[in-house]
């Protein structure tokens, strides 16, 4: 239940990733190639991977699913994919001087 609460807490930045990424992509500090590499949910890139993977994790542990039916292996893999994609976005930002 703690993970469910955490993943649904709007104060947790990852829950606002799409909005925050939009601000980042509007920044003049990122070059055009980096903006394309990060992408959005509408245009594939590392940022889309973050959104999709994190959404999958949230779906796996939604309130509608009994705790006994949660596939924790899939949750772990989803968290790892989310973190790897987020690391890629961070690396792109750092390469632009952030």
Tags for this entry?
98 residues, mainly alpha
Explain the overall architecture.
This protein is mostly helical. 64% of the residues lie in helices and 0% in strands. The protein has 5 helices and no strands. The mean pLDDT is 87.
Total strand count, please? Answer: 0
Q: Unreliable stretches, pLDDT < 50, 5 or more residues?
A: none
Percentage of residues in DSSP E strands: under 5%
The sequence of SSEs as H and E is: HHHHH
Major β-sheet profile: none
Shape: elongated
End-to-end gap: 35 Å
Question: Which helices and strands appear, and what pairs or packs with what?
Answer:
Elements: H1 2-8, H2 17-26, H3 32-38, H4 46-60, H5 72-95
Helix pairs in contact: 4-5
Can I get a quick summary?
The protein has 98 residues and is mostly helical.
């Amino acid at each position: 239940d703690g993970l469910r609460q955490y993943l649904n807490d709007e104060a947790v930045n990852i829950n606002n990733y799409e909005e925050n990424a939009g601000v980042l992509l509007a920044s003049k500090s990122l070059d055009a190639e980096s903006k394309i590499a990060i992408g959005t949910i509408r245009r594939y890139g590392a940022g889309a991977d973050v959104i999709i993977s994190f959404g999958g994790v949230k779906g796996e542990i939604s309130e509608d699913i009994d705790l006994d039916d949660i596939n924790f292996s899939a949750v772990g893999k989803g968290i790892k994919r989310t973190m790897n994609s987020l690391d890629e976005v961070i690396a792109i930002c750092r390469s632009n001087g952030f």
